Amino acid sequence: MTDLAPHELRVLLAVGSECGFSAAARALGTSQSAVSHSVRTSERKLGAVLFDRGRSGATPTAAGERALAHARRVLRLLEVMGAEVRGAESGIVAGPLRIAAFRSAALHLLPRALERLTAQHPDLVPEVRIVREVGRGTAGEVLDGRADLGIATIGTSSPVPPRLVGGVLVEEAYALVHPAGHAAPRSLPLVDWAENCTSYTRRWWAEQEWLPAATVEALDDGAVLSMVSSGFGMAVMPELSLIGAPPSVEITDLGPERPTRSVGYVTTPELAKSLAVRALIRELRAARQAV
Asked: Does domain 172-260 have CATH number 3.40.190.10?
């Protein structure tokens, strides 16, 4: 197989992001025929159809989705190579650093790390995307080449995905959260959200006879905390989600058998060696002491 050139990878990404050959041509400043020819050439080299063509545009096939993920990662490595080479000469860590994080990590774990990171490396530009930690979550963003590093829930129940490397930053305990001063908080409805779903936590919940099935599911942990604060219900929430909780809620320890959640980082083996990602991991490890 003949390797694809960088410009061919960029054409594939343009077709994928623009959902069509004509739109990709406009975005690239070229002709539709040139885009079509480039895609056909890439498909011939790879031996697979990458896009389903139709009147409504172009949709990546399963093979196309895999090709786009690899294209993003390859082009990102080429960008990183330039920054790494210049950094080796100048000692300067520069350029964009793409981070995917779920909401509570972005609110309470990342800011301190990014503050210290950019103070030491002012030419580094963090780009943070908030991603729901459901399905493929933040790790999927890294695997698909959309992020250099993801803040993810990892551990025995959610191991680091194959093809990625990572480590635990924070081990956070869950606690019962309920309206302050309520006479019987365990009688209240249970409020939950989709991200609050590690298998270990679910097993623990199933063993608690006093804990009812959730009757309300909110969009995120912030909405859950707001509902509990207003007296609507109770919840079982991890520590990061409870930082800055209002005085209208009370946080009760669940005892030595309480569930926990491991929050860590994931990245690719190649990017784990880059100056920017290594610097961010150092600052995340330092920031965890303040959590």
From this structure: yes
